[in-house]
Write a structure and sequence with these properties.
about 400 residues; 3 strands; elongated
Length: about 400
């Protein structure tokens, strides 16, 4: 069977290709045999199309993975063999998709593979960081400890996502309600006022004429507006997923005064936590840096990790490599430098991650408190301009009538 893969070489370059293998685990071994670090494996059907995946890792989908890892940790810690633990988790899986994933992992273990190797058949669920930590636990005999840390890592990521999503509920709801109000005004209210203006013969100011023309265009060619909107959404989505789009968006976000600070802080916390967990799990430093780079969503931070890896390869300090560009707080860099001197790098990194996560909670609340009044003012002005444009001709008529009737 053929498998298409996405992997990274030692320089951090992203590569894609295909290998012939009997299973996903064997395909992963073949890719690693080429000196690459696989991040994704997909079975390819004989006709060339990709076999459908049963579970996709999407935003907001970390909860079932977190629960799976926590339950597996408890079972392993109580001395339950891996096979029995997987069978128990397979029986109590909440969805057919997760049951299928656990069944695939269990069958891989039955065939003699290790747990980390069996998970390679499902890279869309168990990423490279997850598999590397489990492999480190298998090699060191500390499976329960590293499973617990991996579960905590995934749970922390889920909590951060939930915090950000929760903070954005009110602004999104506000924009949605304002958009609905504007649509009702443009499609239904403005046409009624237009008939009133024609009956009264009122002279219309430019803003009112513009609103009426916009209402006519939207009602007459709504399908064209809809196609344009859908096309713009999908076009923007495709561009944001492209390399150039990711780079441009990353630069734009990091350059914003308050939002840039939030983005840098979240990325630094993610870097510190993942790298700290990997190093604490006895993953070699160079490998830990490569895996952390794959887990970063910010191209700027990915390049920063590349720089740190180059420094480490040359025998220089990792903290010096990460100090470039001002992406990471100088206090964090100094703490990392002290950790290198004392041999406590993972302890320092995890402490830094805890501190940054607490700080990020405050930053999100601060950012939300800034965005909400700005949105209220902008939306209020927009609705106010529309309402004023509709009522201004009536005010003019009233003023003219009062002026004409005066003695």
């Amino acid at each position: 069977m053929k498998y298409s893969y996405i992997a990274y070489d030692r320089s951090g370059q992203r590569l894609a290709g295909r290998v012939e293998a009997a299973s996903g685990a064997e395909a992963g071994e073949l890719v690693r045999g080429k000196g690459l670090y696989p991040s994704s494996l997909t079975a390819v059907e004989a006709g060339g199309g990709s076999a459908p995946r049963r579970v996709r890792r999407r935003r907001g989908s970390l909860k079932p993975l977190s629960e799976f890892l926590r339950q597996l940790t408890v079972l392993v810690r109580t001395g339950t063999p891996i096979m029995q633990a997987l069978e128990a988790l397979e029986r109590q899986a909440g969805t057919d998709a997760w049951r299928g994933v656990i069944q695939g992992v269990r069958k891989g273990v039955e065939e003699g593979r290790s747990l980390s190797e069996a998970m390679e058949a499902h890279p869309e669920v168990f990423d490279a960081v997850c598999r590397s930590l489990i492999h480190a636990g298998e090699s060191s005999g500390r499976m329960d400890v590293l499973l617990d840390r991996l579960a905590a890592l995934v749970r922390q990521q889920q909590q951060i996502r939930n915090a950000v999503a929760g903070a954005m509920v009110y602004p999104v709801l506000l924009v949605g309600v304002a958009g609905a109000v504007l649509c009702v005004m443009v499609l239904f209210v403005i046409p009624r006022f237009e008939g009133l203006f024609e009956t009264l013969g009122a002279p219309l100011p430019p803003t009112t004429k513009l609103l009426i023309s916009f209402s006519h265009g939207l009602k007459a060619q709504w399908w064209l507006w809809l196609i344009g909107l859908v096309g713009a959404v999908f076009g923007a989505r495709a561009w944001l997923r492209s390399e150039s789009g990711r780079q441009a968006t990353d630069r734009a976000l990091l350059g914003l005064p308050t939002i840039g600070r939030v983005v840098r802080s979240f990325a630094a916390a993610r870097l510190a936590r993942i790298l700290g967990v990997l190093i604490d799990g006895k993953v070699p430093l160079i490998d830990a840096l490569k895996l952390t780079r794959q887990a970063m969503t910010s191209p700027s931070f990915a390049r920063l990790i590349d720089r740190a890896e180059d420094y480490v390869t040359k025998g220089e300090s990792m903290s010096d490599g990460m100090s470039a560009g001002g992406l990471i707080n100088p206090a964090v860099i100094e703490a990392l430098r002290n950790g290198e001197r004392t041999g406590q790098i993972p302890v320092v990194l995890l402490s830094v991650a805890d501190y940054l996560d607490e700080d990020n909670t405050v930053l999100v609340k601060t950012l939300t408190s800034i965005i909400e009044p700005i949105l209220l003012v902008v939306l209020g002005l927009t609705v106010g301009v529309v309402a004023f444009s509709l009522f201004m001709p009536l005010f003019d008529l009233t003023a003219a009538g009062q002026g004409g009737g005066a003695p």
